Amino acid sequence: MRKRVAILGAGPSGLALLQAFETARKSGAEIPHIVCYEKQGDWGGLWNYTWRTGLDSYGEPVHSSMYRYLWSNGPKECLELADYTLDQHFGRPVPSFPPRAALRDYFLGRVKQSGVRPLIRFHTAVQWVDYCPERKVFTVTTRDLLRQRLNSNEYDHVVVASGHYSTPNTPDFPGLDQFSGRVLHAHDFRDAREFAGQHLLLIGSSYSAEDIALQCHKYGAGSVTISHRSEPMGFNWPEGISEAALLERVEGRTAHFVDGSQREVDAILLCTGYLHHFPFLPDSLALRTGNRMYPPGLYKGVVFARNPDLLYLGMQDQYFTFNMFDAQAWFARDLLLDRITLPEPAAMSADMEHWLTREAELETAEEEIDFQAAYMRDLLDRTDYPALDVEAMADQFKQWLQHKQECILGYREQRFPSTLTGTLAAAPNTSWLQALDDSSESWFKPEAEETVAEPRRVAHG
Ligand code: FAD
Ligand code: NA7
Q1: Of 178, 337, 345, 371, which residue is most buried, by most CB within 10 angstroms?
Q2: Do the beta carbons of residue 42 and residue 105 sit within 8 Å?
Q3: Distance of CA 185 to the CA centre of its chain
Q4: How far is the CA of 245 from the centre of ligand 2 (A)?
Q5: What is the DSSP letter of 8?
Q6: Shortest CA distance to 260 belongs to which of 244, 272, 243, 271?
Q7: Residue with the nearest Cα to atom 27 of ligand 1?
Q8: Please, are residues 95 and 428 in contact by the beta-carbon 8 Å criterion?
Q9: How many whole angstroms separate alpha carbon 335 and alpha carbon 210?
Q10: d(CA 91, CA 6)
Q11: How confident is the model at residue 80 (pLDDT cuts 50, 70, 90)?
Q12: Is there an atom of ligand 2 within 6 Å of 200 CB?
């Protein structure tokens, strides 16, 4: 009997695995019986923008954390897919930092061509996964959201590709419950224009805080204060954005920080990250980790060591994204096709220990980038995924870090060459600060017509 494989989620990670299998099938391999369950009505994962927050129209948690006017925060050349180049998709040089819709279009372009969509059951939320050790079988129970029917099916393998930037981490602070302005998590942030003219307090000092601060500044916030727990981001912020110590308490509209300073604020945004949350998994199958470079318990960052018939994709903190998911997907596929054999448990533990030790030694973002490139290299060398120069991409990521240090408002105007084709990205037709329309159409136009609002006139930091 053919193996049965369930893939949970049709975001970039789940789609990478569908693509990997389809590539093997086209070259003559017999592939397992595959079903991919997706609770949304479309593929694309986090990249599907919705105005909804909280629960969707079926009572399921809204998955997407993306907002309007979101532009890629890393160069597209660093996430290029080796079997579907940027040139193949865009047909001509385009700028390195696309808006959300254009990047979504890129990774979906590949799966549209390969024709894997029929393998996905949309509007189908995974409710529970059980494992029977005697029969070595998983039972996956799903809810057909359109018909409101529960279904259970058996699989030999389950691949969890449900993402980990969707369930908000929401710390409490004294006085938040009395605060009369809006308090929301980055997951529910949708449109920066809502905050035009307001004085904002953002808590957290990572990508969400950085980008939401820039968005709100761009669309006219009165001021943005970013409160950090560990380290300030330390960018050369434009006037109107500043950093503060950790929030201690809120009294009325006054935010008090642990160093004794205070600010009057109109709204508070928790940019405090996300939980790896798997409400459909029993304790024995659930990955327990924070947002880190090497989640413990995953051999090669993919195989759930406690039960190697269960795989996870995309669970790492991410510099590399789409092509890292490919590296993982090709590895996962080859395991499931028995082209790769798992070592004994002791050897798997030793391998994980090796990576965890390396992870513990990481001190800088540059080192994290090299670590992730080395991790990808380790996977890529085990499969027939087309050649990918992850080391050159790592160098590009380091340049990107440097560009951000030099000018946080202007880094998206930099141009990178593709490591696959050599094509140099086009210059953007306007600065990011002036680009108020984030549609693909506007981005593609030689001279964009701005339609949303008057651009903010602020000098680059
Ligand atoms: P997801 O994209 O989260 O997809 C998971 C899928 O699983 C979803 O479709 C979801 O509906 C489905 N699912 C979840 N639970 C269930 C269930 N119970 N039943 C059925 N289906 C389920 N990356 C970049 O490369 N560039 C960027 O500019 C960038 N910006 C980002 C901005 C934000 C605000 C966030 C949050 C992330 C950003 N990322 C960016 C990183 C992002 O994590 C990856 O690009 C990518 O979306 C991860 O893919 P994934 O498939 O692992 O997870
Ligand atoms: P991250 O990168 O996981 O960062 C979470 C941030 O939240 C980080 O700065 C944390 O501080 C901070 N945090 C977490 N808990 C607290 C509390 N209790 N108090 C204060 N600060 C806290 O999540 P992001 O949302 O920024 O980024 C995730 C993805 O979304 C990423 O891929 C982006 O592309 C978009 P710490 O530094 O740990 O002290």
Answers
A1: 371
A2: no
A3: 16
A4: 15
A5: E
A6: 244
A7: 72
A8: yes
A9: 38
A10: 35
A11: very high
A12: no
Q: Cα–Cα distances in Å, from 450 out to 54, 433, 443?
A: 31, 12, 11
**Which of helix, strand or coil describes residue 191?**
coil
Phi–psi pair at 126, nearest 5 degrees: -75, 125
Cα 320 to ligand 1 centre (Å): 13
Strand residues in 271-409 grouped as ranges (E)? 274-275, 298-299, 303-304, 310-312
Ramachandran bin of 336, using left for φ above 0, alpha for ψ from -120 to 50, beta for the remaining angles: alpha
CA distance 367 to 363: 7
Domain ranges, ordered by start, for the chain: 4-166+274-396, 176-270
322-347 tens-digit pLDDT: 999 999 999 999 999 999 999 999 99
Residue-wise pLDDT for 378-409, tens only, equals 999 999 999 999 999 999 999 999 999 999 99
Q: What is the distance in A from the centroid of ligand 1 to the CA of 461?
A: 31
Residue nearest to atom 23 of ligand 2 (CA): 273
Superfamily of domain 176-270: FAD/NAD(P)-binding domain (3.50.50.60)
CA of 335 to the centre of ligand 2 (A): 33
In this predicted structure, the answer to whether residue 457 has a pLDDT above a threshold of 70 is no
Nearest in space to 87 (alpha carbons), one of 429, 444, 425, 394:
425
Q: Is 170 in the pocket of ligand 2 (CB under 6 A)?
A: no
Q: Give the DSSP letter string of 341-369.
A: ----HHHHHHHHHHHHHHHHT--SHHHHH
Q: What percent of the chain has pLDDT over 90?
A: 93
Could you tell me where the beta strands, DSSP code E, fall in 252-332? Answer: 254-257, 262-264, 267-270, 274-275, 298-299, 303-304, 310-312
Superfamily of domain 4-166+274-396: FAD/NAD(P)-binding domain (3.50.50.60)
Distance of CA 48 to the CA centre of its chain: 12
